[in-house]
Write a structure and sequence with these properties.
Length: 224
């Protein structure tokens, strides 16, 4: 074999190897792109437990209402955020109590399937629970407390603190008792209703009913 022939063979071999290297690199790039595409598709099609619950919800059920109504869907997202904020504000024992209370609230919410207006019932339940968490865990601004003295007994006083929630709320304290009340429609003045309590401030005085069928008290704000 001549020197020229050897050089030609070496050049051909080098060219062939370069071609093989290029083909191998192209193959690896194609495989990588395919894997990335498969991974991307996997990520985008992966469903959350909430997605699954929505897919399986029966029409007319509370779950279906939550998934189908844009306002309530947003409220569901909000309550999750507020609930996490509340958890961060308490200790281990408090977290356990809050989780138990939240489970109880979910059961109460799900009872809305019995309501004549299911959508309104679910929405109201969400709004009141969000406000309650914001008040109990001091997640919103407040005004007060303001002291109200009742005419029937000057020693009988109420301390009222107002909170900037939606709906508006207040905490009324009387001795060692307290009541969370929510704003309700009123022809005049500001009216709040709790489980068995009513606070109605109108024209410089407040009408307070403290307990089921309890007599109405007339009280005035104490001026310092």
């Amino acid at each position: 074999m001549t020197r020229l022939t050897s050089v030609v063979i070496a050049i051909l071999a080098s060219t062939l190897l370069a071609s093989c290297d290029k083909d191998d690199a192209d193959s690896k790039q194609t495989q990588s792109a395919t894997q990335n595409q498969m991974t991307s598709q996997s990520v985008t099609t992966k469903k959350t437990p909430k997605d699954t619950a929505c897919d399986n919800a029966l029409k007319g059920s509370v779950t279906f209402i939550i998934c189908d109504n844009a306002t309530i869907t947003e409220l569901d997202n909000t309550i999750n955020e507020v609930y996490q904020q509340a958890l961060s504000q308490t200790d281990t024992a408090g977290k356990s109590m809050l989780r138990e209370a939240q489970r109880g609230w979910i059961q109460e919410r799900d009872e809305c399937w019995k309501s004549k207006n299911k959508v309104q019932c679910v929405e109201n339940t969400y709004r009141q629970r969000i406000a309650e968490l914001q008040v109990r865990y001091q997640l919103v601004d407040s005004h007060g407390p303001f002291q109200f003295t009742c005419e029937s007994d000057p020693a009988d006083t109420f301390n009222i603190t107002f909170f900037q929630t939606e709906p508006a709320t207040l905490i009324a304290e009387r001795g060692d008792q307290s009541s969370l009340m929510y704003s309700v429609p009123s022809a005049s003045g500001a009216k709040y209703r709790g489980r068995n309590e009513i606070f109605w401030e109108h024209q410089g005085e407040a009408k307070i009913q403290w307990g089921y069928q309890a007599p109405e008290l007339t009280c005035r704000k104490h001026e310092p």
